[in-house]
Specification:
The chain is an all-alpha fold. The protein has one domain: lambda repressor-like DNA-binding domains (434 Repressor (Amino-terminal Domain), Orthogonal Bundle), CATH 1.10.260. Helix content is 62%, strand content 0%. It is globular. The chain starts with a helix and ends in a 10-residue tail after the last helix.
Length: 71
């Protein structure tokens, strides 16, 4: 589920894989493997993306459909 959410968040924000890879400090090919499920995305990258998109990690993981962060 989180793979689909990663792609949807990126596309909803009109970003390319290269732009996200640059934000994470990795290569586009590596980020592409994360989105397609060929390689596990590191936890610190998931946390960075949650912060970048202003959504909860639970939203990325599909544990909730509410993207808002509960603080």
């Amino acid at each position: 589920m989180y793979l689909r959410r990663l792609r949807d968040l990126r596309e909803d924000n009109d970003l390319t894989q290269r732009e996200i890879a640059d934000i994470l400090g990795t290569k586009q090919t590596v980020y592409s493997r994360y989105e397609r499920g060929y390689q596990n995305i590191p936890l610190e990258y998931l946390l960075s993306l949650a912060d970048y998109y202003s959504v909860s990690v639970d939203y990325i993981f599909g544990r909730t459909d509410n993207p808002e962060i509960n603080r």
